[in-house]
């Protein structure tokens, strides 16, 4: 948190930047109000660099266009129905939105767009006080009608209006509360948390796509755990991602096992750390993070209490893969993401057989073949899945995976594992065996693929001999 004086100096510098000053002068000359709002102002107080330039104004969309068109390099009207016009200046993007006074009827999944007349009225309709800050330009006047600066100093999340009214207006704000708890490291005030618990069922009025987008934004934060805990503790997760709170299995006094919910959050934390260390500077990998968070969701359905106080979860990898496919489909994730997360969960236990005995080169090839494009994510997920406090066991598993990755690297260099194919293609198989396209060609291809995985490259001549031998015996 910056001092107020330092934050105001950052805001003055931002207001004096070429793009902001140019837009501000144009609106002022046209007789309209203009203010930087939300993220850019909040981030100045937090000492963060904001890449967004969001403005609000009393000008209506047609008026915004009339002011922007002569000065912008380009402009667009995609958000016009919500009062938002976008424009670009020297490679920088700005969005300018008419003051809003939206209202919800408590049943519709979208707000009724109503334009407002005052900046203060617009700000008190926003989600949280720390986002209800504005800087009037070109005058350089900070507007804080809900004491958002005080809340930032206190590290507190609070709604500008009564939380029941705010969340009633837009229930998705409850999901945003979880995201900002993680993103900003703030805690909710008691009234806001209580309203989330009391109004949790309102989230069912929100479209799956909007809920999905908030889950993605939460997972992209550096420390998603705080927001995920908040979703579970308030009952929201039970409605949007029920497999997560289901991991809080009751542990009886005779059958003990580790807390699967806490384990899953720890795996997520460790996956993010590995993601940063192995791929510094890369964008957050939402697919990997979903797989880390949900890799054990098959355990509640497969839990068995065994004699001697043991607990088993046989085939929870297979069950979990099916469950995650169903849940991500309901949340309207794209097919590629669904397939990748499903595959990672299905394979996340495969490595642990490696520690029980040395794998043959054939087993290593199959591991790489089965992982396909998800191999690097599988490396990270498998390493992150080691959460034991037994240092000796953790080291043994870490060294074993080091060995596996080294063997994969050696075989990849020797055999181009990522492009593993039989030594003969379909056309060659048909020519050798005198076949037309059909089922038998597929069987022959699979036979050669098994040879390739078991024995490595054979060469065309040896592959032909083995194929003809297999065909004759068949």
In short:
It is built from 23 helices and eleven strands. The protein has 474 residues and is α+β, with helices and mostly antiparallel strands.
Principal-axes geometry comes out as: elongated
State the domain count. Answer: 4
Strand content: 5-15%
> What CATH first level of the largest domain would be assigned?
Mainly Alpha
Number of helices: 23
In spatial order, strands of the major sheet run 3-4-5-2-1-6-7
Give the CA-CA distance, first to last residue.
75 Å
Protein name: Poly(A) polymerase
InterPro entries: HD/PDEase_dom, HD_domain, HDIG_dom, NT_sf, PolA_pol_head_dom, PolyA_RNA-bd, tRNA_adenylyltransferase, tRNA_CCA-adding_enzyme
Cofactor: Mg(2+)
Keywords: ATP-binding, Magnesium, Metal-binding, Nucleotide-binding, Nucleotidyltransferase, RNA repair, RNA-binding, Transferase, tRNA processing
Write the layout of secondary structure elements.
Layout: H1 4-15, H2 18-29, E1 34-37, H3 39-46, E2 53-57, H4 61-68, E3 74-76, E4 84-89, E5 92-98, H5 119-123, E6 134-136, E7 141-143, H6 148-154, E8 156-157, H7 163-169, H8 172-184, E9 187-188, H9 190-199, H10 208-219, H11 225-233, H12 237-240, H13 260-278, H14 286-294, H15 299-302, E10 304-305, E11 311-312, H16 316-330, H17 335-347, H18 361-371, H19 375-384, H20 391-415, H21 426-433, H22 439-455, H23 460-473
Parallel strand pairs: 2-5, 8-9
Antiparallel strand pairs: 1-2, 1-6, 3-4, 4-5, 6-7, 10-11
GO molecular function, one term: ATP binding
Cofactor: Mg(2+)
InterPro entries: HD/PDEase_dom (IPR003607), HD_domain (IPR006674), HDIG_dom (IPR006675), NT_sf (IPR043519), PolA_pol_head_dom (IPR002646), PolyA_RNA-bd (IPR032828), tRNA_adenylyltransferase (IPR014065), tRNA_CCA-adding_enzyme (IPR050124)
